[in-house]
Amino acid sequence: FAKRIHFEHIHVARIDQKIVSALHALPLTYQKEGKKYPTSYIVGAATYKEYRKRGIMSELLAAVEKSYTHPITLFPAVRPFYEANGYTTTSYMESYPLYACKYEEGVSQQALDLTRLSNIYDEATKTNGSLCRDAEAWSFLTDGYETVLVDGAYAFISENKAVEAMALDVPAAQRLLKVLQEKAIEKIQV
User: Fold this and answer.
1) Which of 91, 115, 148, 158 has its CB surrounded by the most CB atoms within 10 Å?
2) Is 142 helix (H, G, I), strand (E, B) or coil?
3) pTM for the structure as a whole
């Protein structure tokens, strides 16, 4: 966050000159089918407990929406709140257990390569779209998660589960699952 902060995109609500609610509309780029679009990504949205349930964050979100001409996105912690404020849920997190299966032999994990990770991510998400990730974003992710990379697929591992996985095709997914199985990963989240 310290590397990505843009103070001019921090929005606050005050009562009697005291900041009671704030959010950061982090400027990012969204990509879909080879085209890029500006967007803002809401992070750090918070209201002091004693000021909650007064509509302050709803007013702040509305003010932020009016101050930009491009779409705003977020990964909400409380979906009903954001949906009540006009946000649309476009994805859901699902978790699947990994079962012991037989996969081809000789699959091995490859050395970390940010360019290959980025190419897999961009190709796997080009039809449905995704936030663009630059070298700094990839570095943040690979520093924060154990990364598994195989030919055509990758996964980020946290607490014995794959919290992000991308594969370009079924054989790549099978290679990834083989390595995850060898690492005794219990679940995959998509």
Assistant:
1) 148
2) helix
3) 0.79
